[in-house]
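On clarity, I found the account of how folds are encoded harder to follow than it need be. For illustration, here is how one protein appears when written out as sequence plus structure tokens.
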Amino acid sequence: MYLGIDLGTSAVKLCVIDADGNLIAQGSKDLPISHPFDGASEQNCEDWWEATRACIKALDPALRVAIKAIGLSGQMHGAVVLDAQHKPVRPVILWNDARADVECSDIIAADPSAAQRAGVLPMPGFTAPKILWLSRHEPEAHARIRHVMLPKDYIGLCLHGGCVTDPSDAAGTSWFDEAARYWSARLCELTATEPAWLPCVMHGTDVAGTLLPDIATDLGLTPDIPVAAGAGDGAAGAVGLGAVQAGDGFISLGTSGQLFVTTDAYRPNIENRIHAYAHTVPDHWFQMAAMLNGARPMAWLADLLNRPIDHLLAEAAEARPGPLFLPYLTGERTPHGDTTIRGGFANLGEGMSQGSLMRAVLEAIAFSFADAAEAFAKAGTAPTSLLAIGGGTRSDLLMQMIADVTGITLGRSDEAVVGPALGAARLALVACGDKPMDAVMQRPTVRHWFKPKGAIDHSTQIRLEAYRALYPALRTVQQKLR
């Protein structure tokens, strides 16, 4: 048996697979998140570890002792800053935190070539600008830093005691030279970072370390089993779907959203804000459109209305198109690179229902993928068929909307909701040497295809154009409010 752990933003998720890749068990544990000021997003890494421990301990004891290896996945970009004793210096600044906007501009002003080296323009959510922000705004905390880690790698530290990451997670920091696949001394210099703080980089299928005896006893696992280096959630999702060869890809509908295509070479496209990153497997990279607000607005609206999300989705399926929604609750990366923009409804009327609002939210998520597909096309990549992962894939209506507005056929498998945890388990299976990578990283059986109905109909095209007009309009309004 092989355990995959995915440290998400809203929850820790795990799954156990057998040597044939069959899903044997899974579990999850919710995580708290704090927003100490507008645009800020933080978590405590101790909460991550406690939730991980609880998830593992909830597995059947007989299953736990049968686990032969562990793989890791997790939310990318978070700044886990530790002191010399590996103790947290402060709460983790997350991927959707917007505080380091000025620092990003300063990095490019200091060295315009930084974006080409790092695969994309620096953005506040990335790790390196956050460390520069700390040096300016929390100098006492910055002075205590001796290690900087990525979220999943903190779980790895707790499991095996080492400071290790993989190329795909390193890629999302703005410190990594994507083409050469090593830490860039120049990017560190630009961001008040000592290269010695950064973890060792190993491929996702490499053994980062073995399970510490006391941790094994606590968790009911076998001591000294290998822990794979793992992958950032995007690359782990790709591994779970077998998207490790050039041209393979998927969309992800989790808290954030992604459109991801594997490439066999480093292909940056800075002007369209397409992320060009090293893959977790050797000699491969990927292009990715990253949206800060994937399926999250669905849960946000359900929480706001205090209604079960399934009920609202059913009402949305019956509602006629009415209001428009801009889904940028926490800013946006692709295509705008704007951390300050916020969401909003437009075209509201007295006859609007809660189902109408949810339909507008689903439509906006689909339109954000239309923007992503357009950015990909400008970058010279035009996928015609992609698999889909993440909790948002449960909605047939949303999946069909995305297929219709992007012109991309989408496939959903039984493992779609498992996502990166499955990829992490697959990396564990390869790391312990039980099967070669080619035999493990196969595409899943697609249970449902969502095919575009054809060219976008006139009414949908008008609504897409109106949606795109909302961004500059609301940006102008919000600038007046600052």
Remarks:
- The first helix runs from residue 45 to 57.
- The first strand starts at residue 2 and ends at 7.
- The mean pLDDT is 93.
